[in-house]
Amino acid sequence: MKIFLDTANLDEIRKGADWGIVDGVTTNPSLIAKEGRPIEEQVRMICDIVDGDISAEVVATEASEMIREGQKLAKIHKNIVVKLPLIRDGIKACAALSKEGIRTNVTLCFSANQALLAAKAGAYIISPFVGRLDDISHDGMELIHNICTIYENYGFKTQVLAASLRHPLHVQDSALAGAHIGTMPFKVLDMLFNHPLTDRGLDQFLKDHAKAFQETGAKR
């Protein structure tokens, strides 16, 4: 499973990229707004850090404007994936942009039927939101399973990007469900490293090494 960071913060992206495990970045208007720069400028700076798919979202809600905005975003960098909302006009724009060879990420997906429509429209990526479904007492991970099954049944090439991942278990379950990509905040990525037995084992190794070195030095 590819790992994407769901952030527009350059410091977080640099830290993740420095570990050598970040395959791409997803942004949205809310994340861009927090950074205080125009979307074109911020996204271009992100593309300079990570050589992978970088999702940049349109803010228009009418198909013709989405298409125009998507064409403009796609010109920023070769790695840009145009993010579109899963509404009727968004699917219409997805179909039009896909025919032009512009890659799209259809976002705000909350049902397998919606994911089917996005795949039919030629979406490069579909983004089902796991955590937000959990918030309303639905099984968000079941949606990932269902979409992966439908896509496999019919040979759709659309990649499933598990979004709204709130904790490490979401990441693990997305990988087990067959999601092609998992996108997460930096703090969740950082948490994937953590296990008390790792810390305890490393501490013991270092203590044993130090003790052996001291004993060797004393014999000399």
Instruction: Write down how many β-strands occur, each being a DSSP E stretch of 2 or more residues.
Output: 8
> How would you characterize the largest beta sheet?
8 strands, parallel, barrel
Shape: globular
Uncertain regions: pLDDT < 50 for 5+ in a row?
none
CATH class call: Alpha Beta
- Indicate the percent of residues in helices: 55-70%
Series of secondary-structure elements, N-terminal to C-terminal: EHEHHEHEHEHEHHEHEHH
End-to-end Cα distance, whole Å, is 52 Å
Structure annotation, total helices: 11
Strand fraction equals 15-25%
The structural class is alpha/beta
CATH topology: TIM Barrel
Mean pLDDT: 96
- Write down the domain tally: 1
Strand order within the widest beta sheet? 1-2-3-4-5-6-7-8
Task: Evaluate the radius of gyration.
Answer: 21 Å
CATH homologous superfamily identity: Aldolase class I
What CATH architecture do you see? Alpha-Beta Barrel
Structure commentary:
An 8-stranded parallel barrel has the order 1-2-3-4-5-6-7-8, surrounded by 6 helices. It has a single domain, classed as Aldolase class I (TIM Barrel, Alpha-Beta Barrel). By secondary structure, it is of the alpha/beta class. It has 11 helices and 8 strands. The protein has helices at 10-18, 29-35, 39-49, 63-74, 88-99, 112-120, 130-135, 140-154, 168-177, 186-191, 196-219, and strands at residues 2-6, 24-26, 53-57, 80-85, 104-109, 125-128, 159-162, 181-184.
